[in-house]
Amino acid sequence: MEEIDSKQQKSPSLVMTIAAVALVTLVAGGGGWLVGALLAPPPPQKTEAAAEVPPNATGEEGLPKVATEANGIVQLEPITTNLAYPAENWVRLEVALQFEGAPDVALAEEVHQDIAAYLKTVSLQQIQGPRGFQYLRDDIQERVDLRSGGRVTNVMFRTFVIQ
């Protein structure tokens, strides 16, 4: 008779434990949702100014392009090439050039070819880490300054991937 009484006492405590865990889970989920709703900014409202973007100034995703020839910025085609050492590593680089005054597309193409040729001479060890990337940026800026004669005021790195 004592065995039956001990089994009956254990059964309600297991049900109470499951109910308590479920209640705590619901309270924690509700509290997380409430805090998230209070801290998250509301979604931006679509304005008429954003809807009036010219069709030629949008990218593939429909977002306005920052790099347009109207504001003196020319985005170069992506550069994909292998490194000097190890030769099995590849680098992909997208840059935009900011011109002083009207942009020169022919000069931008020369700069594009010059950057591509320079990247073929760089080894992976030279561009590893933040300091190596800064040296690469400085070297490319110096080459662009020499090639353009000071007409390009800024080289903007858009993407840089090593594979």
Strand content: 15-25%
Distance between the termini: 73 Å
Please outline the major beta sheet.
Answer: 4 strands, antiparallel
Number of helices: 4
The oligomerization state is single chain
Count of spatially separate domains: 2
Instruction: Compute the CA-based radius of gyration.
Output: 30 Å
Class inferred from helices and paired strands = alpha+beta
The ordered H/E elements are HHEEEHHE
The beta-strand count equals 4
User: How is the CATH topology of the largest domain named?
Assistant: Tetrahydropterin Synthase, Chain A
Topology:
Elements: H1 2-39, H2 48-51, E1 73-75, E2 79-82, E3 90-99, H3 105-119, H4 129-148, E4 152-162
Antiparallel strand pairs: 1-3, 2-3, 3-4
Describe this structure in words.
It is a single-pass membrane protein. The chain crosses the membrane at residues 12-39. It comes from Sinorhizobium glycinis. It is found in: Cell inner membrane; Cell membrane. Keywords: Cell inner membrane, Cell membrane, Cell projection, Chemotaxis, Cilium, Flagellar rotation, Flagellum, Membrane, Transmembrane, Transmembrane helix. This protein is an alpha+beta fold. It has 2 domains: 1-43; 55-162, Band 7 domain (Tetrahydropterin Synthase, Chain A), CATH 3.30.479.30. Helix content is 47%, strand content 17%. It contains 4 helices and 4 strands, in the order H-H-E-E-E-H-H-E. It has helices at residues 2-39, 48-51, 105-119, 129-148, and strands at 73-75, 79-82, 90-99, 152-162. Strands 1, 2, 3 and 4 form a 4-stranded antiparallel β-sheet that branches. A hairpin with a 7-residue loop joins strand 2 and strand 3. Helix 3 (105-119) packs across helix 4 (129-148). The protein is elongated and about 85 Å long. The model has no long low-confidence stretch (mean pLDDT 82).
